[in-house]
Records
---
Amino acid sequence: MTLFEKIIARQIPAEILHEDEHCIAFRDISPQAPVHLLVVPKKPIPRIGVAALDDQALLGHLLLTVGEIARKENLSEAGFRVVINHGPHGGETVPHLHIHLLGGRPLEWPPG
Ligand code: AMP
């Protein structure tokens, strides 16, 4: 069971902001911005690069959910960033697909 499956199963606590049939969103335990949330599919796809055609609707749902949560968190006007880390060079540490939603301050580009 992945760390995020344990959060989904309520075996590990998290500040959950959204849950539906397909995904869950909660605050990152180590926030890198005033708003830092993770949107996680309930299906434990390990990382974006191994998602399959069967996951097309789910991936679209995740992105639409990110947009919905950003609006609820009042990030739309000032802006925000969406990040998916894949593998060692990407900075992935949890092998369960998740989308970072970061906002609440200006974010630098390019990333480090
Ligand atoms: P990544 O490095 O892209 O794999 O992102 C994993 C993220 O999960 C990191 O930003 C961590 O801070 C976050 N994280 C790890 N454990 C927890 C937890 N128990 N609750 C919430 N977020 C977590």
Note: The mean pLDDT is 98.
---
Amino acid sequence: MKKFLFIVGDGMADRTSEIRSFTPLEWANTPNMDYIAAEGINGLLNAIAPGIAPGSAEAHLSMLGYDYTKIKNGRGFFEALGAGLIPMIGDIVFRCNFATINKEYDIIDARAGRIRERVRVLADLIKRELNEIDGVELLFQESLDFRGSLILRGKNCSSEVICPKIMQEGEKAIIKPVKDSKSAIRTTKILNEFIETSYELLRDHSINVTRKTQNKFPANVVIPWKGGYVSDLRAPPNNWNLKGACVGAVSLIKGLCKFINMTVVDVPEATGYIDTNVYAKASAALNLLEDHDLVLLHIEGPDEAGHDGDFEGKVEIIEKIDCMVGLLLDQIAWEELYIILVSDHATPVDYKDHTADPTPISIYGTKIKKDKVKAFNEKAASKGGLSRIRGERIMPLLFDLTK
Ligand code: ZN
Ligand code: ZN
């Protein structure tokens, strides 16, 4: 029985720059990933298409064989599902960040210093005090660290609002309507009131007073962003008929996998950051492989380090992933298990956001004919036997290569 293990280092691919002639993957010590590349077939992947910098959701949907263009619900929907909310058709769903703003509502830190401790206390306050505005029900749910979700449920709401691009410098925590429609203006008012009230509630909270004395950014506001209208609660079909499961930390990936009917397990030691416990995730993946055909093992850390512009951090998490790959290689007991080692997109440390650079992909397993590539990195992969492929071709390729 064939089994497939996708190991996705989110945003793991990178690019060289004027100050650095090597990428984190080239610099990191990765004997186990290099083994997979050397024993497998390699190529360069554009999860969507050349020239398109994908979001993680559409990249993963494509790699798992789904037509992402058919799923209109938006990123907030997946976040909400992963966070444990139950969106309904007609809801407007946003992803949210606890963030740091100043009195002028300038965003100072979009992740509130990556707050992790006692977020629950702040979130409970938001849930208690901000559950309805102007007759619209508000459902807020915190997820991992600074992340959360917000559902607007009520009549005359619209997703046609412009949220701040919170990772960009100079943005204000203010929502604007896309057009002059009544519902867009009303939704904008509700969201801005949500932001303002969250600021009033959190600004002088004792947790934030303490954070400031520790020179940490206070989580003094909740900013909704990346909103979408929920129009479909059922995933489009795929052709593979595989029983899938997912091991991941971040709500986006967990929610997306729930949506496409994969089993989703929680690994408490998974943090979605450089300090994640990759061994706990690997052992969860091995357990799931016992009774699933396809397991997605998602590691968020490289993307976070990329967004932070943290080269050393990215190297550190890549080397951790490598150790995890080593552990998996040691423990694999199935004759026909295929490993797909890949990154969903590049998040270059010098650019601090996703780019359209192609990412290395290696496919390893019994029936795979190896090529001449000896290492897992961007440059080596360009000489691989798969050449350059798109995410949507991965599943057909897997079934063909393993015939
Ligand atoms: Zn990603
Ligand atoms: Zn990212």
Note: The two ends are 12 Å apart (CA to CA).
